[in-house]
Amino acid sequence: MKIERKRERIFYFLLVPSSLVVLTFVLLLGVVVYSSIPALDRFGLSVYTKNVWDPVNDQYGGLAAIYGTIVTGVLSAVISAPFATALAVFVNDISPKKIKSFMINLSDLLAAFPTVVYGFWGLLSLGPFLSHTLFAFLGSLFGLHRITNGPSLLLASIVLAIMITPFASSLLREVYSQVPKSVDEAVYSLGLGKWELVVLKLSYIKRAFLGAYALAFGRAVGETVAVSLTIGNVLNISPNLLDPGYTIPSLIISQFGTAYGIQYNVMFALALFLVVIGIAFVIISRLILRVRL
Amino acid sequence: MRVKDAVIVSLITSLVVLFLLPIAFLFYTVIVNGLKVIISYGPRFFIDLPPNPGDGLGGIGSALEGTLYMVSLAVLISAPISVLAGAFLSFFERSKMASSIRASLELLVEFPTIVVGIVVFQILVLGFGLGLSGFTAAVALAIVMLPYSTIQISEALRIPKKLYEEAAYSLGLTTWQVMRLIMRIGRRGIVNGLLIGFAKIIGETAPVIFLTSSTANLYLQSFTSPVTGIPVLIYTFAFSGYQNWNDVAWGASLVLITIVTVVFVIARRMAK
Fold it and tell me: In Å, how far is A28's CA from the nearest CA of chain B?
């Protein structure tokens, strides 16, 4: 009985700091909702569905930023997927042991790298380089006009793809390594080779792949500085990926400092959109990942 | 080896190499440009104030000082919470509370850091009237760090708990003593978790951009005066268009990735 009571007391002792974690999340969400109410009250859903940014007449609608957020998020996930998958397969089934641990360490280090450095490099090195090569080629191939020396939806997506690949591949790597050894044994005992092994194991982790990319997408749409430095920061909705654009975080970082009145609340309303997307994708990924593996 | 196998092996290997190319380009650019600046300015790069726009080279002393101050303060705020919450998660794994904490942690990890920044601004600066200071910035960084270090610590305590819990109880120790024992055994894992959090927040720009001073020409004066940090300095200097500011930002980038790499290597060593 005595031990039982001690356990209880320690439970409550630890409960206080632990519940701070829950409280922090609730507080963050609560403040975002609370501060966006004036904007939602005044503009309704048009704050999300209209493309207007007019501080003189106090009219705001962030559709262009939402467009940019979704385009860069999807594009970066699509670009990064083959590389992240290849990296996960490589360290598990192909690379020699020595290279394996080096690659794992490198990719985990890259996942923790300051995003501002990716952005700075993207603005001053990768951007001009791609502008002369890939973007010039794409521009002439599809007859797209270009107005910047790099910064564009496509450049931001490429920089984002480079950033989320290590993160996504570390998730995929874990799942891929958990595929039962009996699959390897079965493949080899049938006299089949790497081709069948990789194809079979990848088909095994299909769902986990979606779960990992739901998380990677959530990370990409929330990224701020790297995108802000490489996207060009122009509010327009253009199907031309070589045009500059905006995302919600990059809009917030460049306009929050000078926002006042209703514009300040519009910032929170857009942040709310971002947070809701983030929460939705965490839930989706959890649902997918829990079902299998 | 059959042709098919050779195809898949070379396909995957070439994708990996293709991914490593921009990474090598990144490292090359930052190291070469950064070293050029640091060597030509000399060791005072780590002490001096940044230059005026268009006016030669300078140092990153104030930003380095500000970063170390903010980040240490953030670790001090975050550490007790993440250690105790990590212990709770590993000891009362199956309680209802643990699953809601775990859910909150997963959501916090994905919470956009810029939103953390503007919420802290709203609460502390507008709500409580605290000015921009190292403390307000540290609160935002502590929130960003919290989920990373807590998850790491609860994972690190899981193994020693599994190995020693039953033996410890069978010796007649109380839960309190068992927990202290297991935390002592898992202390490397705890430090490792805090280091991971440290490495994560030292490079964060978005959460502190509105909580720090945009002019980088300040050393720390008092606990209530605004500070600046290396990531914020890189961000503002990158956009400036002044060649000398860009150069200083390259040097600052090299310093930043060096710190992150060193902390990361130490954390990996400890985890082994």
Answer: 6
Taking the C-alpha atoms of residue A106 and residue B42, their distance in angstroms, rounded to an integer, is 30
Higher model confidence: residue A2 or residue A71? A71
Q: What are A232's strand-pairing partners? A: A245
Q: Decide if pLDDT at A3 tops 60.
A: no
What's the pLDDT at A107?
93
Q: Nearest Cβ partner of A256 from B15, B100, B118?
A: B118
What's the pLDDT score for residue A5?
A: 47
- The total number of structural domains that make up chain A: 1
pLDDT number for residue B175: 80
| pLDDT tens by residue, B197-245 | 999 999 999 999 998 876 656 777 777 788 889 999 999 999 888 999 9
Residue A262, in any domain of the structure = no
Task: Report chain B residues whose CB lies below 8 A from the CB of A286.
Answer: 106
* Sign of the alpha-carbon torsion through A283, A81, B144, B234: negative
How far apart CA B255 and CA B252 sit, in angstroms, is 5
User: Are A164 and A220 within 8 A, CB to CB?
Assistant: yes
Residue A263 falls within a domain, yes or no?
no
Does the B61-271 domain belong in CATH 1.10.10.10? no
Enclosing domain of residue A189:
70-255
A6, A100, A116, A174: best mutation site toward chain B, by most B Cβ within 10 Å? A116
- Which residue type occupies B42? G
DSSP track, A48-64: HH-EEEETTTTEEEEHH
Domain ranges of chain B: 3-40, 61-271
pTM: predicted TM-score of the whole model, two decimal places: 0.92
Question: Is A13 within the bounds of a domain?
Answer: no
Interface size A-B, in CB pairs within 8 Å, comes to 236
The CATH number of the domain where A101 resides is what? 1.10.3720.10
**Degrees (nearest 5) of the Cα angle B27, A109, A100?**
100
Residue of A nearest to B211 (CA): A257
Look at A18 and B22 and tell me if their CB atoms are within 8 Å.
no
Find the helix or strand (DSSP H, E) in which B50 lies.
none
Enumerate residues 40 to 79 of chain B having a beta carbon within 8 A of any beta carbon in chain A: none
Q: How high is the pLDDT of residue B114?
A: 96
- Note the residue count of chain A: 293
> Computed over its alpha carbons, how large is the radius of gyration of chain A?
23
Distance CA A192, CA B179 (A): 50
Structural tokens at position A175: 């799942």
Residue of B247, B249, B211 whose CA lies nearest to B230: B249
In a domain, A280, yes or no: no
Among all chains, which residue has been given the structure tokens 């610590």?
B153
The DSSP call for residue B46 is G
B262 and chain A: CB distance < 8 Å anywhere?
no
- Give the torsion through C-alpha atoms of A151, A152, A158, A162, to 10 deg: 50
Distance, in Å, from the CA atom of A108 to the CA atom of A115, rounded to the nearest integer, reads 14
How far apart CA A228 and CA A116 sit, in angstroms, is 9
